[in-house]
Amino acid sequence: MLGFRCASGVVGFVRQKDVAYQEEHVPKGTSCIWVIVVSYTVDFHQFQSECGYKRDNCFVIFPSQPPHVYGHSMYPVIDSDNDSEDGRGGGFAKNLKAVTMSSSYLPATTESLNQAQEAKIPSEAISILYRILENPSSSAEALRIKEKAISNLADLLREENRAEELRSLLTQLRPFFSLIPKAKTAKIVRSIIDAVAKIPNTSDLQISLCKEMVQWTRTEKRTFLRQRVEARLASLLMESKEYPEALALLSSLIKEVRRLDDKLLLVDIELLESKLHFSLRNLPKAKAALTAARTAANAIYVPPDQQGTIDLQSGILHAEEKDYKTAYSYFYEAFEGFNALEDPRAVYSLKYMLLCKIMVSQADDVAGILSSTKVGLQYQGPEVDAMKAVAHAHAQRSLRLFETALRDFKAQLEEDPIVHRHLSSLYDTLLEQNLCRLIEPFSRVEIAHIAELIELPVDHVEKKLSQMILDKKFAGTLDQGAGCLIIFDDPKTDAIYPATLETISNIGKVVDSLYVRSAKIMA
After folding, report:
1. Taking a C-beta distance cutoff of 8 angstroms, is the pair 332, 344 a contact?
2. Where in the chain is the domain with CATH 1.10.10.10?
3. What does the radius of gyration of the chain's CA atoms come to, in whole angstroms?
4. Which residues does the UniProt record annotate as the domain PCI (predicted)?
C-alpha cells in the first residue's frame, strides 16, 4: 500500500514483494514491511496497531538526517532480535528509540531561529532549520517562523553551493505550500530558484528544476506561479542556446498572458522574445517584440530595473542598425537607472556607451566619460579597461594595439556577442584605413612589403586588398603572378559632362511640357 499515513506520523509502507530494493538489501525469505518514518516522534504501539505490524522481521528505513535527503542518506535497519516477549523485536525497538530521541523536531519559535543563527558552523545551522521545518504545527505564528526558516535555509544552502539540496527543499516543502497563501508560495518558489541561479555551473539543474515546478504548478492549478516559472525557463533555455524550445514556450505563453491582460508579466515576456529574436539575427521581429513591450509598459507603472532593461535592449537594437548616436542615448538612460539601483548591469551599459563613442570615431571622449564624478572609480575594472584599450588603439589607428587589446581582454571583448559583433566591423574599418594610408605613396608595390609594414600575414592582406578593389575603395588591380599591387590614379571627371547631362535633362522636360500643351490645343 502506498501513500498511507497513520496518526503516529508514519507514511508510505509497502510489502516486500512490491519493493525492487529488496533484491540487494533484504535477505531472501524475509517477510518484512518497508516503512519510511517522516515524523521523529513515532509511537511504536500506535504504529503496531494501525499498520498491522506482526512478529515477522521488520525492515525499517528512516533518515539519518531530516527527510530532505530521501534517497541519498537513508539506511536500513533489519531486526534480527524478534524473540522478545512483546512481539516486536528488541533490536528494532532499540534502534527506533535511538532515532526518535536524536532526531526530534524543534519548536517553530523565534528562539529556534536564533539558535540557528548562533550556530558556529553552517551545517549545524542547516540541521537546526530543517528540524524547525519538521514541526507539525500549522498555527499562524508557526507558519510565519517556518517562512523565515525557509529563507534562512535557502541562503545558507546557496552560500554552501548545495544546489541539489535546494532542489530537494522545493519538493519537501510542497505539503507546506498547501497551508500558506498562493502569493507567498510563489514568492518562496521564486526565491529558491533565484538562490540556485546564484550558484555557478547550475544551468542544467535550473532548467530541470523549472520543468519540475511547471509540472507541479499545472497539477496544482497555480496559474500565476506557472507563468512566471515558464518565463524563467524560457530565459534559461535561451541562455543555453535551446532557441526552438524557448521560442515555442514563449509563443504559447504570450497568447495566454495577453488573454489575462497581465501587463507587467507581458512586458517581461515581450522583452525576452526580443532578445531571443535578436540572438537568432531576426532584427525585424526583435524590434516588433520590443515595440510591443514598450506599448504594454506605457499602460502601467514599470519598475526602474525593468525600464532599464527596456532601454538597454533598445540601445542594442539601434547599435545593430549602425545608429550609434541614438543607441548611446538609450545606453545612457539604462546606465542612469541601473546606477541608481546599484544594479550590476550598470557596468555593461557603460561599456556599450563607450563602444558607441568608439564606433563613431569619438574615441577621445572615452577618457572624459570615465573621468566624470558619476562614474569615477566606481566602475573601474576589466570591462572598462577593455574599452579603454580599444579606444586607445582606435585613436592611434594601430592594428597591433587593437589585436593586443583583443588578446588581453578576450573574455570582455570576444566573448561578449554584442561587443564582438561591432568590434569585428571596427577591425575591418581600421584595417582598410591603414591599408589606404600605406599604399597611397605607391603606384606599384609588392604585397609582401605592405604585409610587412602592417604586420599581418600576406594572404590576409591580399584577400583584404582584393575585397577593397571590388568595393571600389580605391582603383587598382592585383598582379598575383608578380605578387604586386598596381594602383591607378583616380579618374578625374571632366566638369563639362555633368553640365551637359543637366542641359539634356532640362530640354527633355521642356519638350514634355510642349507636348502636353499641344495635346490640349488639339483637343
Report:
1. no
2. 440-487
3. 36
4. 323-492
- Sequence-distant contacts of 290-294: CB under 8 A, at least 24 apart: 290/314, 290/317, 293/266, 293/267
Return the closest-CA partner of residue 17 out of 32, 38, 39, 37.
32
- Written as one string, the DSSP assignment of 423-459 is HHHHHHHHHHHHHHHHHTT-SEEEHHHHHHHHTS-HH
Span between the terminal Cα atoms of the chain, in Å? 104
Cβ pair 321, 283 in contact under 8 A: yes
Largest separation between any pair of C-alpha atoms in the chain:
133
Beta bridge partners, 74, equal: 63
The span from the CA of 161 to the CA of 199, in Å, is 6
> Which cell is 282 given?
531576426
User: Given the C-alpha cell 588603439, which residue does it identify?
Assistant: 393
Torsion (CA) 445, 450, 452, 456 in degrees, nearest 10: -150
CA triple 395-397-401, angle to 5 deg: 90
Q: Which CATH class is domain 440-487?
A: mainly alpha
- Return d(Cα 329, Cα 136) in angstroms, integer: 57
Beta bridge partners of 60: 35, 77
**Distance (Å, rounded) from C-alpha 128 to C-alpha 121?**
11
Q: Which phi-psi region, left, alpha or beta, contains residue 9 (left: φ > 0; alpha: ψ -120 to 50)?
A: left
Strands 476-479 and 484-487: antiparallel
SS3 of 170-182: the string is: HHHCHHHHCCCCH
Q: What is the full per-residue pLDDT of the chain (523 aa) written as tens digits?
A: 233 333 333 333 333 333 333 334 444 443 333 444 433 334 444 444 444 433 333 334 433 333 333 333 333 333 333 433 343 334 433 333 333 333 467 888 899 899 998 888 998 999 999 999 988 888 999 999 999 999 999 999 999 999 999 999 999 999 999 999 999 999 999 999 999 999 999 999 999 999 999 999 999 999 999 999 999 999 999 999 999 999 999 999 999 999 988 899 999 999 999 999 999 999 999 999 999 999 999 999 999 999 999 999 999 999 999 999 999 999 999 999 999 888 889 999 999 999 999 998 888 888 888 887 567 667 888 888 999 999 988 888 888 888 889 889 888 888 888 898 898 888 888 888 888 888 888 888 888 888 888 888 888 888 888 888 888 888 888 888 888 888 887 767 677 888 888 899 999 999 999 988 888 888 6
**Cell numbers describing residue 9:** 506520523
The number of beta carbons lying within 10 Å of the beta carbon of residue 263 is 18
Q: What are phi and psi of 248, to 5 degrees?
A: -65, -40
Global pTM value: 0.69
Would you state the cell numbers that stand for residue 309, as one nine-digit string?
Answer: 532593461
Strand 74-78, strand 33-37: pairing: unpaired
